[in-house]
């Protein structure tokens, strides 16, 4: 009977759902930087790419008596883009508690910055707002971003312990704001909100967006009771630190380290050990962290980590991860038609049209004969010297998107330039065409046919990160000229009052297409001045429905004429006096460049 009693106890222990689910002390060594990289993938990005959440090695945030106080470093949040999460074993019953030490240095009109993740959404959203007097009010929401705020005013630059919870059966989310550790849950929360019931919680997330406070965060804990938030568990357990569950590694990854930690157990004692099983392979017994899993492209690995006490399994954790395949594409058109999140190798050559020298994203615009794309290289993977006009072959990376702009994130370096000194001819585009079909021109070098700036802007100076509306000269079609490259000489140059051709890169912001001029010389009024001045050219009939077009000027000397299709391909290059043969042109819109006596102009020609 005694043997049966101890057997029952052992079985109960092995089947318990341990109260402490996650402890995050931001203890990732002494190198500061992007949290997702510093944590080895324990934290993963799920939205945005700019302004990564930063890992800071020291100091940690502290509160007397809090078990996750004073350990490791902290995370710093001050941007408006990247959101990150850390996953844990999913919980679908009872009440799930989360906690964190936070210290706010500034706050705006209000938004949420910390929350639980569920499948396909969020819940228990914790936020803060200015109380109107320079203080802070904290609030909580559920599946909606509308928060219920408390009435207490808290101070900036002060560390508070936020404890938030979600009750699965009722959908109630509560928030407590503590200035000291409290052994029992207070009867009255600072704020409460009720939302959807039955959610399964699988991760905790840090969010950046507009009106998000600038803050430091540390000592994140997730548990299934208030007691486990305020106290370290005495129950033996194992936790998988990396990789994050569901992580995908770059192609070419030959091995992945599964790192784990154990709590409340002495692994030096006989019968206490950690066993690891990978898929259906035999169990590897009595292993230490990290455990290295050999990998190959295109494979998925399911790893089970078991903790044994006295030879019996007392805790089990699982993690699944994959190694991506890489798909070869011949050109940028095929790359742009790829799937977001997938990995590709560009086997054809692309040429660098512009290198962004400001900021830390190491961005480069590249294009080939038919398409362009923006390289976003925060990690600095492309370390080989590369310049504008250089060709690249064999570029490997992951296809991503930000604010509608397709981006290619490199995953491997290239040996260097495959060619140098290449020149790129801009594609002639009208304002209406860019506005309507901007995806065709995204990240390509284009020249916007003569446009005029709004009268309110004309005569002023170009400013960084500013949009300017431009209108097709002689028409009503408009598009956006955005100045984005703050270290170029276009900043502070004069916005013309006369019509101008604008050369730049095709851009987009959430469906609104733009042109991004780089230099002051990209705003060119010389062509349009000749076109509309006293020595202007005339071209007729236009639209043309015959075999010839007449081009006249004040002097009617010989003229060099080049005709380009709307995608920038030269279709005519000839010298005339008055008559241009257009019999070989198909119906459509063309750009005609006319040069006489060293003076040039461009005109749009329509062939019916």
TrEMBL record:
<feature type="signal peptide">
    <location>
        <begin position="1"/>
        <end position="19"/>
    </location>
</feature>
<feature type="domain" description="DUF5689">
    <location>
        <begin position="362"/>
        <end position="523"/>
    </location>
</feature>
<dbReference type="Pfam" id="PF18942">
    <property type="entry name" value="DUF5689"/>
</dbReference>
<dbReference type="InterPro" id="IPR026444">
    <property type="entry name" value="Secre_tail"/>
</dbReference>
<keyword id="KW-0732">Signal</keyword>
<feature type="domain" description="Secretion system C-terminal sorting">
    <location>
        <begin position="539"/>
        <end position="607"/>
    </location>
</feature>
<protein>
    <submittedName>
        <fullName>CHU large protein uncharacterized</fullName>
    </submittedName>
</protein>
<dbReference type="Pfam" id="PF18962">
    <property type="entry name" value="Por_Secre_tail"/>
</dbReference>
<dbReference type="InterPro" id="IPR043744">
    <property type="entry name" value="DUF5689"/>
</dbReference>
